[in-house]
Amino acid sequence: MDGQYRVAECKMNLEEYFKRIGFHGSNEKLDLATLKLIHKQHVMSIPFENLSIHCGEKIIMDLEVIFNKIVRSSRGGWCLENNFLFGWVLREMGYNSTTLGSRVFNSILNDFGPLESHLINKVVIDGKAYITDVSFGVSSQVWEPLELISGKDQPQAAGVFRLIDKGDMWVLEKTGRKPEVVNSEFASSSLVNRKETKQIYGFTLVPRDADHFFETSHTLQTDPSSLFTNKSICSLQTPAGFRALIGWTYSEVTYKPVEGVDDLDMRDIPDDEIEQILKEKFSVKLPNKLKPINNKAWYTL
User: Fold this and answer.
1) What mean pLDDT, rounded, does the chain reach?
2) Is the pLDDT of residue 9 over 60?
């Protein structure tokens, strides 16, 4: 349960975090190049996952618990863990960083959700503001910070991202590529995103403290209508694209920008191989048995 990660071996420290993400450079320069590097190393090393909900654990927003879980126990986490931890890393390094809340776009409602359920961080370097987000997962995951400038195309591996100032809030959107599903039996899967341009989330620049998310964190873990109670999700970025295990469906996605497509290699995993897939493909070892779930909900790769 939640007490599992509570016992701290020693105080949280940057060196352990840097080792966890494989960062070996200098952390003395608080510049954009260093920020880009640790951002990319984080998403390549630490999965976006909500598996705690489906293996008998409770997720709590306590930095020491999160540090012990993600850094010391070879786990991932969702945004309220990963981005909360990343915000601590930024402040500990000395960056000018502010926590923000965002409302995720719901394609079924065709609107942004009512709750600020997604935590992100704003960083200011040499007078320029950037949005960092190391925990959205799948094809909506940015690998590097986005400059907070309205309407500018910001190409990354997953596609072209844009931040748009709508007046009452900023909106993150992405223009991607056509999906090509390798396995014909998954050609009509609801997990396949078929919208070329999609809105991801909207946010304001109002600073948020951790306690702003406490009630939302509880709701997302317990509400029967929550995406996270309806799907077990584990996603990790790779140099070529990303991997994901949604319920029993394992996907390896390869970005092919030259051809203008993303290759989706999808297959279902038997129950007795789930543990092995998590260990081999995501370096995740769970303390309890996972109960995969993949109910219908607004979620695509």
Assistant:
1) 96
2) no
